[in-house]
Amino acid sequence: MRDTSDATCQSFESSERTLLAFNVLLRSFLQDLRLHNNFWNVLATILTLWLADKSGRRLLLIVSSSAMALSLLVVSISFYLKEYISPDSDLYATLSLVSVAGVVVMVIAFSLGLGAMPWIIMSEILPINIKGLAGSFATLANWFFSWLVTLTANLLLDWSLGGTFTIYTAVCVFTAGFVAIWVPETKGKTLEEIQQFFR
Q1: Structurally, how many domains does the chain consist of?
Q2: Contact predicate 40/101, CB 8 Å
Q3: I need a surface site. Which of 72, 74, 80, 191 has the fewest CB within 10 A?
Q4: What is the pLDDT of residues 51-75, one digit of tens each?
Q5: Which residues, other chains included, contact 62 with Cβ-Cβ below 8 Å and sequence gap of 6+?
Q6: Closest CA relative to residue 72, chosen from 37, 19, 21, 108
Q7: Which domain holds residue 190?
Q8: Which of 184, 40, 197, 198 shows the shortest CA–CA distance to 121?
Q9: How far is CA 168 from CA 65, 121, 157, in A?
Q10: Cα 146 to Cα 163: distance, rounded to the nearest angstrom
Q11: Cα–Cα dist 84/7, whole Å
C-alpha cells in the first residue's frame, strides 16, 4: 500500500513538475509573441508617421485597409481549405503557418494606416468649435465597436473560422472603398482648405 502511495505521489509530483514547466515555457513563448507583436507595431507606427507626411494620410488608409483585406482573405482561405485536409498532412501544417503569417501581415498593415491615421485625420478635419465633442463621440464609437468585435469574436470563431475572417475581410474592403470615396486628403492643407471639402 505504501509503495502504491509513494508511486502515486511521485507520479503526481512528476506531473505537477511537467505542468509547471509547460506553463512556464508557454508563458515565455506567449510573452515572446507579445514582444514580437509590440516590436512590429512600434516599428510600423514610426514608419507611418514618416510616410504620412511623404505620401499622405488618405493613401495610407487605403493601402492599409487593402493590405489588411488581402491578408485576412489569405487567412480565411487557409481556414476553409483546412476543413478538407487531414490534420496529419504537410499541407495542413503549411496552411497553419500561412494563417499565422496572414495575421502578422494584418497587424503590420493595421499599424501602417488604420492604427494611427484616423486619429490624425480626425484632429485635422474637425472644426475647432466641435472638435472636443465630436472627438469624444468618435472615440466612444471606436471603443464601442472594439467592444462589439471582442464580444462577438468567439461566437463567430465557434461558428466558422473561415467565415469569421471572411466577414473581417469584407469590413476591410468596405473601409478601403469608404476612404477612397469620402475621406479627404489632409496632407499639406490648411484647416480652411479642409473645411471647403465638406461644403
Answers
A1: 1
A2: no
A3: 191
A4: 877 888 899 999 999 999 999 999 9
A5: 113, 176, 179, 180
A6: 108
A7: 2-197
A8: 184
A9: 11, 23, 12
A10: 19
A11: 45
Q: State residue 31's pLDDT score.
A: 58
Neighbour tally for 25: CB within 10 Å: 10
**pTM greater than 0.85 (yes/no):** no
Which parts of the chain register pLDDT below 70?
1-37, 198
In 3D space, the residue among 42, 57, 184, 188 whose CA is nearest the CA of residue 118 turns out to be 57
Cβ neighbourhood burial of 172 (10 Å; 0-12, 13-18, 19+): buried
Looking at residue 23, its pLDDT comes to 52
3-state secondary structure the chain: CHHHHHHHHHHHHHHHHHHHHHHHHHHHHHHHHHHHHHHHHHHHHHHHHHHHHHHCHHHHHHHHHHHHHHHHHHHHHHHHHHCCCCCCCHHHHHHHHHHHHHHHHHHHHHHCCCCCHHHHHHHHHCCCCCHHHHHHHHHHHHHHHHHHHHHHHHHHHHHCHHHHHHHHHHHHHHHHHHHHHHCCCCCCCCHHHHHHHCC
CA distance 107 to 74: 14
List the CATH number of the domain containing 146. Answer: 1.20.1250.20
Contact 69, 172 (CB under 8 A): yes
